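Question (not urgent): is this output format expected?
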Amino acid sequence: MSYAFGAALQGAVFQALSADAALGLLVGDAIFDALPAGPLPDLYVSLGAETVRDRSDKTGAGAVHDFVVSVIGSDAGFQDVKEAATAVSDTLVDAALILSRGQLVSLRFLNARARRTGAGQKRRIDLRFRARISE
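Got this back:
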């Protein structure tokens, strides 16, 4: 298997997050697959790193994609960031995403890491998910 499903998965994840009403109430349209130039919003979601492994078998091609969705905020506490991270998780776990290439078999939460960044001025939660895709 190749990296054939990467763009299709990223597009479907971005679309699902952008269309989610609960997440929209928290971050508006501040969902990025590439950070824009200039100042960033006080609270936003960013699609991040991805690791892909072949999971082809005798029935066909397939891959496992472990990917990160980050929620970053500049408030003093973690509350807003945690609420947005919850909305991200609620949107993606077991989602029935329609991919432009391949078929999503499963999508599950793996883990999350919350921390302070930028000399303690920002709050960041990195959520890791695993998607199993077949041809």
